[in-house]
Amino acid sequence: MTRLRYFAAAAEAAGTDAEERSEQTLDELRAAVVAQHPGLVGILPRCAVMVDGVRSDTDRSLEGVELVDVLPPFAGG
Description:
Helix content: 10-25%
Distance between the termini: 35 Å
Order of helices and strands: EHEHEEE
Shape: globular
Oligomer: single chain
Strand order of the largest sheet: 2-1-5-3-4
Largest sheet: 5 strands, mixed
């Protein structure tokens, strides 16, 4: 299982700040969370996705991955 954490607007849209997921790839994970949390449709494409602390913009295996973070753009300076 992979721990998926949502932050800021992504957490609000998902209705939770974390959940356990079992998808095998990042693309499968993205599709599944949008299906389960429709509020993420407009937010997820703009979010940075960190896989065990490393940004991942493309599909990849989640085998052995412990943590995925969904970080929406943050304003400020």
